[in-house]
Amino acid sequence: EALRLRQGARLVAAGRFMDGIVACNASLTRLPAELPASLQHLRPTALLGHGAFAQVIEVSDGRDGSRYALKVVEKEPLALRGMLSQLAFEFGVQRSMRDPHIVAAVELAEDASHAYMLMELCPGGSVWGAVQHFPACVVPETTCSAWLCDATRGVAYLHDLGLVHRDLKLENLLLDGAGRARICDLGWCAFEADGRRGKCGTPQLASPEALRGEPHTLKMDSWALGCCLVQMLSGRQLSGPQDARLPLGASAAAQDLGQGLLQPEPSGRLGARAALGRPFLSGAPAPIASEAQRADCGGMELE
């Protein structure tokens, strides 16, 4: 039942597209009065969530009733912070994703004030939300293994493209209609070769080397996978690297994986594909991305 819990209250649309949406004051994005022409067949049904720079709405297609998630981002708050290029990069990368473990973009659009990403709807909500419905927020190892394997496969796909997610966490893993976990929110995504440094993502889950100001590498995501493992098996929220340890009652297979993912030095830490070979994560590795897919991971132009 936890997989079917919805995030956000049901909404009733009236008049213009956004008239039925109760705006979220915690987000810097203000919802527009109407959508661009290419998206005007959509009708809002629920406010799914929000971030600092975006709001996500469940919508239905007025033509056939299909349901989607619509990410709405107002450009001005990003422009004032010099972040429009990051938004363009996120949309370009999301458009190129072709992996069942990553939420797919169906359509991209923009107008003078906003950018829009129409995505597959994951009706189970976030893994973080589902975790709250287990006793003491502790996930059984069989369920944890399945969700973490899904996430690790998605991370391995990104890494094959040379991309670092940089904000992997339970809130950014969504459950599809089959109860499988899929990665979302590529807003902090970057190419490893760019050698990004500094603050990004969620500080409490940052890897030790990121906190030291070192370049962000693929192993940064490995640390984040280890943090997801700890959170699901311990029921604890983490406040820094010092909390990234599994409970004593975790199985030997879980301890083995945790030790590999949570090595303090990135050189000794498991990569995503190596992690898939550990006993706790069953199943064969996903296919390696093609060179054509690598070349397609560029940004899009935003006006």
UniProtKB/TrEMBL annotation:
> What SMART domains does the record tag this protein with?
S_TKc
Q: What Pfam families does its record include? A: Pkinase
Cellular-component GO terms for this entry: nucleus
Query: Superkingdom of this entry's organism?
Result: Eukaryota
Binding-site list for ATP: 71
Q: Which PROSITE patterns match?
A: PROTEIN_KINASE_ATP, PROTEIN_KINASE_DOM, PROTEIN_KINASE_ST
- Which PANTHER family does the entry mention? CELL CYCLE SERINE_THREONINE-PROTEIN KINASE CDC5_MSD2 (PTHR24345:SF0), SERINE/THREONINE-PROTEIN KINASE PLK (PTHR24345)
Report the GO molecular function annotations: ATP binding; protein serine/threonine kinase activity
> Could you tell me which Gene3D superfamilies the record lists for this protein?
Transferase(Phosphotransferase) domain 1
Regarding protein family, the annotation reads:
Belongs to the protein kinase superfamily.
Name of the protein in its database record: Protein kinase domain-containing protein
Could you tell me which residue ranges the Protein kinase domain spans?
A: 42-281
* Keyword annotations: ATP-binding, Kinase, Nucleotide-binding, Serine/threonine-protein kinase, Transferase
